[in-house]
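Please, structure for the following, as C-alpha cells.
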Amino acid sequence: MSEAEAAAQAELPHIVDRLTAIRSQLRQIAESLAADPQAEASSFDEDEMDVTTEVRSIIECVLNDSIQPAIRDLRVAAAYRVKKRGEG
C-alpha cells in the first residue's frame, strides 16, 4: 500500500465521524419540526405546514439517500485491504 493510500484510509474514519455528527444534527432538526408546538398551533396556515413537511421530507431523503450510504461506503473503504495471493 502506498503512502497516499494509507493516508487516505487513515483520514476516512475522521470524515465518517463528521458525517455521523451531521446525521445527528439533521435528525435533531427533523425531530424539532415535528415536536414544535408553535408549528402544530399554526396548522391552519397551509404555507407553514408545507414548509415543515417539505423540510422534514428533504432531511429524511438526504439522510436515507446520501448521508447513511456515504457513512457505510466510507467505512468499507477505510477498512479495505488488498487480499494477498492465495487468500480468499
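The chain has three helices and no strands. Residues 3-79 form one domain.
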